[in-house]
Amino acid sequence: MDDDIADFLLSARAADALTRLQAESLDNENLLRLLTRLRASFDAREAGALVSLARLRRRATVKFPWAERMFFTAEALEQATAATVAHHHAHWLDRHAPPGPVLDLGCGIGGDTLALAAYRPVIAYDRDPVRLHFARANADALGLGDRVEFRCADWTEELAAGRLPQAAAAFADPARRVEGRRVFSLHAMAPPLSALLALQAHTPALGVKVMPGVRDEEIPPGCGVEFIGHKGTCKEALLWFGPLAIHERWASVHLGDDGQSEWRAIIARGEPPPLGSLTAGDFLHEPHPAVIRAGAFAELCADLDAHLFDPQIAYLISPQAVNHPLVQSFAVEEVHPYSLKRLNRRLKALSIGQVELKKRGFPVEPEQLRYRLTLTKGGRAAVIFFTRRGQERLMIIARRVR
């Protein structure tokens, strides 16, 4: 986005138009009508920018409850931390860091900046002047502008030149897309791990947002790694250094809707989980993806009085039903060696007409099998798990436990 368009969107002229657009349908079918009407008062670029921002604000409501007052670019919104998760970051940092201001490095449009500023004074850096301009406007819109000092600069260059200010703690959000392509290594981020370790020497209390699939062998010694669960997925991982590394490895999962903001943490101690059998009549429990990434199986087994049926398969088994927020539970009806013919016979015999397909440790994507399944029209629902025990391929017919 050009600077002049960004300045326009922040103007009083644009504010009035954006307020009116909040009540409009922004669907593609209505787009031409909206643009035609707006071009009576604005030029083509301005009209397009107004509609784009109005659409982004509507999309952003899943991340920010106050999105109708905020400013975004499409890429920055995609990369921004959701408010619920950002406040989790900020609360942890405020609780464990020494007193004083916080550096927010790579602040984007201010997702984490806003949360950090609710707890402490913030010095926020970004190289992109448009994003920084929008971050400042977002802080002002939420009454936090006097809590944040914004600086348009590359913090790695400031650190190398000795100009990065001293602070009680720092939070960094490196880019995980480089030249338009997603990267999967800490060494390929921008800036890379080496720059972050140099930062940690400058500011020992450091938090770094990284990809949820961070490789265990790349995690630096002495830091803790927290896997964040939000809206049913493992959203990200956090590397915590210095006084922020309270645990070595753990998962924090947000429960319920954003209005509740309830979090459940489970700490992995590195102990092996118990192993046991898998039979019809058992209950199978699928852990939240963040718990799986943390490897907190022994701890979850202890909570559920459960076990694994294979040390490499992240399904927990218990003889009784449980109600636990960190798992989805299923009643096991039948367990068989994998055979498509046998599966179709059992689907017909059990009058199953709707199937949810899941897999873990199975070499074939289940959806490739869907069109080959024999289902009963109007039949009941079931869940089919394709998995393995050792080298034996298994199929498990189950039903969800609500």
Plain-language structure description:
It contains 14 helices and 18 strands. It has 402 residues and is α/β, with parallel strands linked by helices. It has three domains: 3-60; 78-267, Vaccinia Virus protein VP39 (Rossmann fold); 283-400. A nine-stranded mixed beta sheet has the order 3-2-1-4-7-9-8-10-11, with helices on both faces. It has a seven-stranded mixed beta sheet with strand order 13-14-12-15-18-17-16. Strands 5-6 form a two-stranded antiparallel ribbon. Helix 3 packs across helix 4. The radius of gyration is 25 Å and the shape is globular.
List keywords for this structure.
14 helices, Rossmann fold, 402 residues, 3 domains, alpha/beta
Question: Layout of helices and strands, plus pairs?
Answer:
Layout: H1 3-9, H2 12-21, H3 28-38, H4 44-60, H5 74-79, H6 83-96, E1 102-105, H7 111-117, E2 122-126, H8 129-141, E3 148-152, H9 155-160, E4 169-172, E5 177-178, E6 181-182, H10 193-202, E7 206-210, E8 224-230, E9 233-240, E10 249-255, E11 262-267, E12 283-287, H11 289-294, H12 297-304, E13 307-308, E14 316-318, E15 327-337, H13 340-349, E16 352-359, H14 367-370, E17 380-389, E18 392-400
Parallel strand pairs: 1-2, 1-4, 2-3, 4-7, 8-10, 16-17
Antiparallel strand pairs: 5-6, 7-9, 8-9, 10-11, 12-14, 12-15, 13-14, 15-18, 17-18
Helix pairs in contact: 2-4, 3-4, 6-7
The top-level CATH class of the largest domain is Alpha Beta
Main sheet characteristics: 9 strands, mixed
Give the number of domains: 3
| Radius of gyration over all CA atoms, rounded | 25 Å
Approximate strand percentage? 25-35%
Sheet with the most strands: spatial strand order: 3-2-1-4-7-9-8-10-11
Q: In terms of structural class, how would the helical and strand content be classed? A: alpha/beta
Distance between the termini: 47 Å
